Amino acid sequence: MSSPSILPFDQFRLRPGGSLRFEGGTYDADTSFFVVFAPTGKGADRHRHPYPETFIVLDGEIEAVIDGASYRAGSGTIIVIPAHSWHEFKAVSADPARLVNIHPVPVMSQEDWNGPP
After folding, report:
1. Is residue 88 situated within a structural domain?
2. Does residue 72 have a pLDDT over 90?
3. CATH number of the domain residue 73 falls in
4. What is the pLDDT of residues 16-67, one digit of tens each?
């Protein structure tokens, strides 16, 4: 039996915009995630993954565009984005949005949009 990993947030370098990236494979975990802190108007640009991604909105409100359709989700909402779906999101609330974006893989894989906006 192996020991658990107990990891403080400040161990991880924040990405631009203030998001924490956790790659599970580094810690023998099969799941990876982002903890996102998005000020109003900020979020993730259009991209997709070869697996489903699950957003858990903890605070604030986001607008997510998934395969061209727009959805709003506030605190206490879960969004499941199908595999291979182009998606993006921005915080639309006055206060920053805080969410956890779960990737059911030990190493995240992402294809960024290179087409017209």
Report:
1. yes
2. yes
3. 2.60.120.10
4. 667 899 999 999 999 999 999 999 999 999 999 999 999 999 999 999 999 9
Number of domains in the chain: 1
> What is the rounded CA–CA span in Å between residue 61 and residue 79?
12
Taking the chain, what is the end-to-end CA distance rounded to the nearest angstrom?
A: 49
User: In this structure, are residues 109 and 47 in contact, taking their beta carbons and an 8 Å threshold?
Assistant: no
Alpha-carbon distance of 114 to 7, in angstroms, equals 35
Tokens 């108007």 correspond to: 41
**Which helix or strand (DSSP H or E) is residue 73 part of?**
strand 69-74
Q: What is the pTM of this model?
A: 0.90
Domain interval for residue 39: 18-105
